[in-house]
Amino acid sequence: MNIALVTCESLAQYAAPNIDDEDSLLSRYLRAQGYQIEPCIWSNPAVNWHNYDLAVLKSPWDYFDRIQEFYTWLDRMEQENVRLLNPVSTVRWNADKQYLLDMERQGVCVVPTHWLPRGTTFQAATVFNALGTNRLVVKPAVSGGAKNTFDLNLAEAQRRSSELTELLREEDFLAQPFLPQIQSQGEWSLVYLGGEYSHCVLKTPKSGDFRVQHYLGGGIEPREAPTHLRHTADDIISRFAADCLYARVDGVEVDGEFQLMELELIEPFLYLETAQDSFARYTMALKNLLSLRGGSATQSSL
Questions:
Q1: What are phi and psi of 50, to 5 degrees?
Q2: Which of 12, 206, 249, 271 is a plausible cystine mate for 190, CB 3.0–4.6 Å?
Q3: CA-to-CA distance for 263 and 176, rounded, in angstroms?
Q4: Secondary structure (3-state) at 187
Q5: Helical spans, DSSP H, in 221-298
């Protein structure tokens, strides 16, 4: 089995000194299991994807900066019948955070969200009133790595309204209440491999920050997922990611209930080194999907 491990040109900017290179660790493990695996930059036009039996998305971390190009690449993979994991239809759906609306309509408890369409004017008071909050987070609908993400009170939002309106000329944004639980309790990330729960970490921001990304100084602690949070995440995976090689469910516990922040199905860091036998579970999930002879049980909701 010859596998293309799909990555990007800019991995170094996401590196942190306390985090090993998960791509290299995974590649080394898969090679030891007899797979031929080669890193391939998704945006490199010289890559002949037909040289590979399978393409596995791992770290195309710049896709949100080149989203139209990324959509074109997905179309090409689909048109040329290159098998991609996770599936093209799932990835396309998951690239824009409008997918949270789909999930909310189907009963998933999502962090309350106010949508800011491209081309509109940012009206600070309107957004704060709609969300019933005195502090909010604003971020692009297609984003990653906390790019163009703002933590604002009303006075700051009013002062930066022109800046946010200018950003809205280019793309859709969304606003959500700032959740103090992220600072006081942390953000949960539950990792699933082949539709089955694998492991969990609790992410915390550095002092004075609200961003939990490890390359921005956030902390990562391996934890067993609390039963009530695990139950919610299991349901999300069974309905929206059952055909996926990997998935990460990110959320916060608010008043005993799991509120979904992100369902990561494209390029999440999987924290494989934090959990015993996780590389083996990844490999088994891959083997199980390959045994489906290329079939894909695409969710009807996508």
A1: -75, -5
A2: 249
A3: 16
A4: strand
A5: 227-240, 278-290
The helix (H) or strand (E) run that includes residue 247 is strand 246-254
Cβ atoms of 189 and 271 closer than 8 Å? yes
The contacts of residue 151 (CB under 8 Å, 6+ apart) are 135, 136, 137, 178, 210
List strand residue ranges (DSSP E) for 169-289, in order: 173-177, 187-193, 196-204, 219-222, 246-254, 257-264
pLDDT tens for the chain, 302 residues: list them.
899 999 998 776 655 554 558 999 999 999 999 999 999 999 999 999 999 999 999 999 999 999 999 999 999 999 999 999 999 999 999 999 999 999 999 999 999 999 999 999 999 999 999 999 999 999 999 987 777 899 999 999 999 999 999 999 999 999 999 988 888 888 999 999 999 999 999 998 645 555 445 555 457 899 999 999 999 999 999 999 999 999 999 999 999 999 999 999 999 999 999 999 999 999 999 999 998 754 443 333 34
Query: What gap in Å lies between CA 33 and CA 38, rounded to an integer?
Result: 14
User: Which two tokens mark 164?
Assistant: 């946010």
Domains and CATH numbers, the chain: 2-94 (3.40.50.20), 99-108+181-277 (3.30.470.20), 114-177 (3.30.1490.20)
Q: Checking DSSP bridges between strand 54-57 and strand 36-41, what pairing results, if any? A: unpaired
User: In angstroms, how far is the first alpha carbon of the chain from the final one?
Assistant: 29
Q: Residue 264 to residues 149, 168, 239, 241: CA-CA distances in angstroms?
A: 17, 24, 14, 10
Q: Quick check: 302 and 243 in contact, CB under 8 A?
A: no
Q: What token pair was written down for 74? A: 């997905």
